[in-house]
Input
Amino acid sequence: MSGEFELILCDIGNTTFHFNIDGKEQKYLLSSSIPDFEEKIYYVSVNDNATAKLKLTNEDIVDLEPYIDFKTKYVGMGLDRKIACCFIEDGILVDAGSAITVDIIKKGKHKGGFILPGLKAYKEIYPQISHKLQFDLNTKVNLDKIPLCTKDAISYAILKSIIEPIKKVSKKKQLTFTGGDGELLSKFFDNSIYKKDIIFENMRRIINANDCIT
Amino acid sequence: MSGEFELILCDIGNTTFHFNIDGKEQKYLLSSSIPDFEEKIYYVSVNDNATAKLKLTNEDIVDLEPYIDFKTKYVGMGLDRKIACCFIEDGILVDAGSAITVDIIKKGKHKGGFILPGLKAYKEIYPQISHKLQFDLNTKVNLDKIPLCTKDAISYAILKSIIEPIKKVSKKKQLTFTGGDGELLSKFFDNSIYKKDIIFENMRRIINANDCIT
Output
């Protein structure tokens, strides 16, 4: 790889190595081979086996986990959730991926959270109940009108079952959405913003805030 | 079978022949053999093949569908939903089975409805997303407190995602719950009643209201 200065970040999940190299993204399945970078790699990981694999090909790697300043009484909170939330002072973080995690932060303190199924999981569940319930999700269904056909009845229920519990806890707080379905879901809330790359964004903030590790 | 007078009702679904013989219930899988009754059988059916099977073994059968007085603009509403709703003047009917159907009736008119996944489907969906999300549903989780562990985060999300959309449409209307999880869910609502056998109850009311068919 090039010897020029690059900031290389890696978010190690349960499916991929997700690299961000000076803002450019690259994804590798955990089973595939990954590049041997010359530069230091700053990473966060929820997967020990994958971390070990990164270490085998790349010597100069820095785990950002010890630098994450996030206090919570929540037992078993994933590192990705912590990083996504760690710079929110007051608000709600919604990470809408395969699951939808909703975390509530008040005066810099994490108050807890809940976990809804992701949109893809919702879509898959209905045909498992009955083949008569197999429909595409219509994200444009009118949520102010009670549905008058099964297709709308399912789309309405999926969206309402995600939106209403979030509205219930958010009241007028600021909502930050991230994750694959974050942009879509953010549109159902007035007081919301969507941040595509909150994990990488916050990894950069952690690096900048800790001069010692750069 | 006995020649004494018995009122025999049959609710033919997609899994079973569900008989009610003078209040006593008997279930037969659609694939198993069913008794040859001497008495008339009043039935409703959502399954044509199973209806044909009932006709083969029992000559004197009466389809109650034509006697159901239920008007709706909803396209494709299942007969079981119609029967459950047909005597409600103003209120919400929640049938909590493999799916949870929610129907809204105002001044004797069906305004529409929506379809949530059933509790069993919800329970099955989380482990499909990740083995880390495999937990039993805790129906006693405190819904007034933001969860502080993953087990509670899932139970809270499942219950809230069912309860909140129903509360949103019900406001102060009377809620009638039925179905396998109806009793459990009814307890989360103040203005609710639970009717275990609303289908058979309403079949009897239809028979009584139509002397000609007894």
The radius of gyration of chain A is 19 Å. Chain A has two domains: 8-63, 71-197.
